[in-house]
Specification:
The chain is mainly β. 0% of the residues lie in helices and 47% in strands. The strands form 2 sheets. Strands 2, 4, 5, 6, 9, 10 and 11 form a 7-stranded mixed β-sheet that branches. Strands 1-3-8-7 form a 4-stranded antiparallel β-sheet, with no helix packed on it. A hairpin with a 6-residue loop joins strand 4 and strand 5 (46-51).
Length: 126
Amino acid sequence: QSQLVESGGGLVQPGGSLRLSCAASGFTLDGYVIGWFRQAPGKEREGVSCISSTGSSTNYADSVKGRFTIDRDNANNTVYLQMNSLKPEDTAVYYCAKRPSTLFSLCLLRQWYNAWGQGTQVTVSS
């Protein structure tokens, strides 16, 4: 069964760091654009970051630029999201998703993704 599984979430103080992982099983991530999204209570799910199939291109939401870094290890079938200088407004459930294409444009829009993980909770609070 093909699935994406996120891990690495937790409770962290403002200014802290977390590294999220998105592991694929049942298929290989190689060849697909992968995105990270988040959804806070009462808000729409929003794009956070995305990475091209080769890892050569990345994109970030303005709210996380300079603080978050996305990268991928195709050999280990995993995509990561390093989150530094976390703020309370980063609190959300974080999801990774697979876009069934190598097309990278507009990769922060959730409509282009057809497979989602179950999410991992990130809470930033003192």
